[in-house]
Specification:
172 residues, mainly alpha, Arc Repressor Mutant, subunit A, 2 domains, 8 helices
Length: 172
């Protein structure tokens, strides 16, 4: 089958053929953008939901394919960000899991207390990086500093937080 790019949806002989090619194109975009390629089908399913919910906002039917691919691309980026937040740093999570908290609210309170004891710059960097999921270059642009500086500061901030956990809970 031919590559669509910005092809006209009316060029297809059937609606089924159009939907099939649209699915393939969105899947290709999702696989390209995602760090975890296994999430591509889920992203495309979510894209279909968005297309069905917001289909009335598409003004030009000739733009259906690029619009659908853009939705898939945006959802893939969001999935990458959420995965990044979930898998911050296994060592760091293991250090925090040794805090003795059995419930999530207690862990969140302890984490908040730990962040509160860091200097404001370190706290801000860690929140930007791990809570909000910003990339190092985005943080560097926001703070008007070089990317290497951001990486070094994040590394030092994580080390300080880990050290505080080890000092407070020496058995971990």
């Amino acid at each position: 089958m031919k590559f669509l790019g910005n092809a006209d949806p009316q060029a297809f002989s059937s609606e089924e053929e159009l939907l099939s090619e649209l699915y393939r194109q969105m899947l290709k975009v999702a696989r390209y953008k995602l760090y975890n390629k296994n999430d591509a089908v889920d992203v495309v399913q979510e894209a279909w939901v968005r297309i069905l919910e917001h289909g009335s906002t598409l003004r030009d039917s000739d733009k259906l394919i690029p619009w659908a691919k853009a939705i898939a691309s945006n959802l893939a980026s969001n999935a990458n960000r959420s995965k990044k937040v979930e898998t911050i740093d296994d060592d760091y999570v293991r250090d925090l899991s040794g805090l003795g908290s059995n419930s999530e609210p207690e862990l969140l309170a302890e984490l908040s207390d730990l962040l509160g004891r860091l200097d404001p710059q370190a706290r801000t960097l860690l929140l930007y990086k791990f809570y909000y999921g910003f990339r190092d270059d985005e943080i560097a642009a926001a703070l008007s500093v070089p990317v290497g500086t951001v990486k070094a500061r994040i590394h030092r901030s994580k080390a300080r937080a880990k050290q505080q956990v080890r000092e407070e809970f020496p058995h971990t």
